[in-house]
Amino acid sequence: MNIFLNFSRHFRHNRLSSIIDMLSLVPGLACCLLIVMWIVGQVEVDRSFKDIDRITTLQGYHEGRSPFWGVSPAVAPTLKMERPEVEKAVRLCSAARTVKYETESFGISAYDADYDLFDLFHLQVVEGRPFVEGERDRCVLTRQAAQIIFGNKSPLNQPLEFEFGTFTVCGVIENLPKQRTVARQGREEIIFLPIERRQEGLDAWYNNSFESYVLLKNGTDYEKFAAEVKDRALKAQPESKLYIKTEKLKDRYLYAYGHIREVRLMGLIALVILLIACINFVNLSTAAFSQNAVQTGIRKVVGASRKSLVFAYLSNAFILVLISYFLAFLLAYAIVPIFGTIIGSSFSVSDLIRPEVFWIGGIMLIVTTLLAGLYPSFYLSSFQPVKVLKGRNAVGLWSARLRQSLVILQFVVSITLIVCTLIISRQIRMYQTMDLGYKWDEVLYVSLRNQSQVQKAFVLRDELLKDADVRSVSVSTSLPTAIYWNGVGFNWEGKDPSENPLISMLFADKNFFEVYNIQLKEGQFFTESQDGVIVNRKLADLIGEDVLAKYFQNDNEGPKIKILGVVDQFLFNDFKAVEEPLVIFPIVPEERDWVNIVNIRVTGGKLGEAYDRIKKRAEEIFGEQPVVRFLNEDVEYWLTSEKQTSRMVSFFSVLAILISCLGLFGLATFMMEQKRKEIGIRRVNGAKISEIVWLLNINFLKPILIGFIIACPLAYYFMSRWLESYLRRIEISWWIFILAGALTVAVALLTLLWRSLKAAMENPVNSLKSE
Question: N or C: which end of the chain has fewer CB within 10 A?
C-alpha cells in the first residue's frame, strides 16, 4: 500500500513529466505489441503442424537460379524407396479449380495427394476416413469445403464431379491452418484426391510442379541428408542440370521466401520505438531533478538509505510503466483492425491475445521498467543532502551530457527511419512506373477453370471481339506475369551440345502481341495458318547471327520449326526476375487443350464498364460463373511484400518522430521553467522576443543537427544493403537525406516554437517579482 501512496504523491508532484512519460510509453508500447503480434504470426507459419522439426520440403533448382515451387513427381517416392532415413513421402499437385455437385458448380481447389498426406501432417479426421493406397475414386474434403458444398448435410458417400471423373467422398478433415505454405496459402476449402488417379507421368523426372515433402526419422543428420540427395535428379536425367534443394518446412516461409528480413526489420523498429520512449522517461526524470532533489535530501537526512530510495523510485517507474502497459494494450486492442488495414494484412483481436504475445509483452514490461527506471533511480538517490538543502545545483555535467546524448540518439533513429521510408517508397514507385516491355494497364483476363471452359475459349475470344470497347483478345497458356520454364530442353542450328540454357516458353495466338503491345524487332509475327515461333532478344542473342534463317526444336528428335521473328525483351514473372530467354509457340483452335487464359485489352477509360459486360458474356458462353480479373492487380501483387514493409516503416517512422518531439517538448518545458528569471532579466534589458526564442531553441537544434550528421551514413549503409536484393534498383539521391533532415527540423521547431514563444512573451514582472 505504501508503494501506491508513494506513487500517487510522486505523480502529483511530477504531473507534467509523468503525463509526458505516459504519452510516450502508451503509443510506443501499443505499437510494440502490434509488431509482436505480427511477428508471432509470421514466425508461426507452418509451425502448427505436428512433427514440424522432421518435415522437409523438396524443390528443384538450377545453379544460380531461384528454386521451383516443387520438384518432379518421381523425386519423393524415389527418396522414400532409396533412403532409409525417409519415413514418409508426400506429393501435392493442383488438380482442378472447380467441382460440381448435382447441378451446382463450386470454385474450390482440388489437389492430388499421396495417401500418406494425412499421417505426415497429422490431419484430424472429423467424419469418415481418409482414402488409402489403391483407392482411385475417393476424395477427402476439409470441413470448410464440406460446409460450402453440402451445408449441414453429411457429405459421406456423396459423388463429386470433376472434368476428369467422378469421386466419392470418403472423409472430412479439419481445416488446414490459415498460416501455412502447404497446399499454397490462405484458403481453407480444399478437396484432396488420390494422386494414383493419374494413370501416367508419376514416374517422370521433369515437370517441377509437385509440392513434395518427406518426413525424416528421429535422429537423422539433416545436413548429411541434404548433401546426399542434392544431385539425385541430376543422376536420373543429366541433361536437365537439375538439383534438389531441401528446406525444413518450419523455415520455408521465413528463409526460403525471404520474410525473415521483414521480421528482423520490424523487430528492430519495435526495439527502437521502445528505446525512444524509455529515453524520454530517463531525460524527463533527470531533468525534473529540482522537484525531487530537496525531497530526496530530506529523506536522507531523516535516515533513508540509498537502497530504499532506489527501491522507491524504481517502484514508481514500475507502476507508471504498468499503467502505461495496460493503457497500451487497450489502445492496441482498439486499433488492431486499423493496423491490419495500414499494412495490408488481416488481423483479429484473437491474434493480440495469443499466449506468445502475452509472454513477450511481460518481458517488454520488465525490460521497459529497467531501461526507463534504473538510471533515474540511482541518479536521483545519489544527491548529497547538504548540497540540495542549501539550494545548490545537484545535477552534474555528466548527467547533462548524457541527456543530450540520448536526445541525439533519438533523432539519429528517427531520421534514419524517415530516410528508409523515403527510399523504400521510391523503390516501389520505380517498379510501379517502370517499363516492363509490355502494356499491362487496361487489360482484363479470364482464367479458365476446367476443360469445358477451355473448349469454348476461342468462341469467347471471337464473341468478345464484337464488343465496341474491346480492342483485342488473345488466348494463351499463361499471363506475362506467370511464364515459367518447365524442364523441356531446346535445340537450334549451331547450338553448342555442351550448353543447355534454361528457356521459358509460352503458347499464344497471333493477337497476344497486340493485346500487350509487345514490339517486333525483326521478322514477322506468326499467323494461325503459318507455323513458326517467335523468340525474344535474349534468346536471339543465344542463338547467334542470322536468327531468322535458323530453325528451332523442342528436343533432338522433335520437328524443326522456323524462327519467324524476334520481339523486344519484356519482363515476365516478377520485378526481381532476371531477363530470361523466351520462345513463343503459336496456338491454334486444334490445340485448344493448351489454353488457360483469355487476354482482353479494353479501350482506354472503359475498363470498369467493359468488365461487367465481359463477365456476363463469358457466363453465357460457359454456362457457369467465370473468373475475370484485372491484370494490374497481378502486377501490384508482385509488390505486396515491399508495400507492406513501406507502410509499416512509414507508420512507425512518424510515431518515432512524434515521441521524440514529445520528449523534446518536455525537456524544453523544464529548461524554460529554470530560465524564467533569466528570460525576465533579458526582457527588462531590452531583448527582443525573436532573440529570446532563438536563444531558447538553438540549444535544442544542435542535437538534432548532430543526429542528422550521424544518421545519414547509417541510413545510407542500411538501405544500400537492402537495395542489393533488387536486380533493378534506384540510386540513393542526396536530396532524400536533406528532405528527411528538413522534415525532422520542421516538426521539432513546431514542437518547440509554441513553448518558447509562451516563455518569451511572459510578463517579466511575474518571473522577477520575488527578487
Answer: N
Q: Coil, helix or strand for 628?
A: strand
Looking at the chain, the whole-number percentage of residues with pLDDT higher than 90 is 20
End-to-end CA distance of the chain: 42
Q: What residue spans define the domains of the chain?
A: 1-54+256-395, 63-241, 398-435+638-771, 443-603
Which of 18-27, 103-112, 228-237, 682-691 shows the lowest per-residue confidence on average (mean pLDDT)? 682-691
CB atoms within 10 A of CB 90: 25
Task: Give me the pLDDT at residue 118, please.
Answer: 94
The x, y and z cell numbers of residue 285, run together, are 526524470
Tell me: pLDDT of 733 over 80. Answer: yes
Distance (Å, whole) CA 190 – CA 147: 11
Q: Which of the four pLDDT bands, split at 50, 70 and 90, describes residue 62?
A: confident
Grid coordinates representing 180 are 501455412
Q: In the numeric block, which cell numbers belong to residue 212?
A: 513434395
The Cα 750–Cα 585 span in angstroms is 64
Single-letter amino acid, residue 758: K
List of residues 6+ apart from 82 with CB closer than 8 A: 232
| Residue 54 CA: distances (Å) to CA of 43, 51, 253, 260, 394 | 17, 6, 16, 21, 62
- Asked if 70 contacts 211 with a C-beta cutoff of 8 angstroms, the reply is yes
CB of 576 within 8 A of CB of 726? Answer: yes
